[in-house]
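FIELD: query
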Amino acid sequence: MPRDVLSVEPDARIVTALTQAASDMGANIVDIAGFLDEVEHKSDQQVRSLQTLQDRAADMVTRNSAVATAVGEVSASSGRTLKSVESSIDQLRDTAKKSDSVASWVGDVEARMGELAGSLGSVTTTTTEIAKIARQVNILASNAKIVASRAGEAGRGFAVVAEASNDLSTQTGTAARRISDAIEALTGLVTGLKSEAETVSEAAKTVLEASGTTDRALNDIADNVRVSAKTAGEIEVQAEALRGTIETFAPALADIHSNTAETADGIENARKRVDGLIDYSEAILQNSVQLGGQSADTPFIEKIRELGQLVADAFVEGVNSGKIPEQAVFNSSYTPIPGTDPQQLMAPFTRFTDEVLPPILESALSFDRRVVFCAAVDLNGYLPTHNKKFSAPQSDDPAWNAGNCRNRRIFDDRVGLKAGRNREPFLLQTYRRDMGGGQFVIMKELSMPIMVNGRHWGGLRLAYRL
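FIELD: result
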């Protein structure tokens, strides 16, 4: 008997052990895949953060150069401003000295005007006295003329003298009045000049006081400009030092970014390979079960076959009885339901599945306490009718709706599409379910194809916890 071909019946114990190992391996691989998903997500975030940091570093170099240039301009401008201020201070001090001289001169003029006004007052007094004397002489001359006229011929010579005295007193009075008028006018002018000199003197004092205040202010400005120029110089030195530091840091940051990006690519490739291992583990488990292997999943496999046949029979009975046309069963025209979030949709067969599937789907929940849900999906992952606990009317809270209103929605993720499109007798998938708050649980999901009069409609999904 040739020994190159050896045919043996599989040992049931070996097949069962293989089945259990495949089941356990699938769960472990899924857990690793979930961990790699988290690592990949964090790695992508790190790559994006490093890219942002690298961009910011380059931007810092550019901005630092701009700052250094601006500080240099400020430093130069401060120097020019300082020179201008110092020149203004010198000019102001020179002007102050001249203003001081003018004020002194005006003060002297004011004093002399006062003296002149006093002298004019004395002259006015003297002129008044002369006018009085002239009047008295005039009176005497008039009296002498009267006496001379009474004396007759003997008083003729005395009358001549009296007449001359009278003329002289008249002329003297007239001259005294003219002098008095001139002195009065001169006194008015001198008084006006004295008043103006006082005003000019006060103005000169104000100018001197303002000049002092301005001088102090300019000195303060000059001091501040000197400080600003010194600070600008120090900033310029620090900016130059910072530029050197950033330019040294940037290549190192670029290396870190490059290495992190390579690591992220490696993690992504590893995750893809792990996804392939999941497919292999599922295939091993499926084949080992078909060889008769037993595992903890066996009761669920038998249940999904039973329920899947019931769903398929319900579709066939509906078509054959005329409850629903066969073309409507396979019509994938989805109509959005207005105002729903997440979006819900209606298909031509949704009303039919809502009528015939609930008793079958609800019975799965009482089969085992670990069962989470049981629902049928078409080839596109559209789930028309769900368990009652996942079919609540939508509220105004999209987050609540996402967990409690899962009917009439499309689930086109990896698990959902594979479940709907699987044509093998059954498919067992293992995945991690996000429970929120960073908590995950390992889930298993069985599915079997739903055939309606020889055509593949979709698949029945049965999910349960480990």
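FIELD: remark
Residues 1-6 have pLDDT under 50 and may be disordered.
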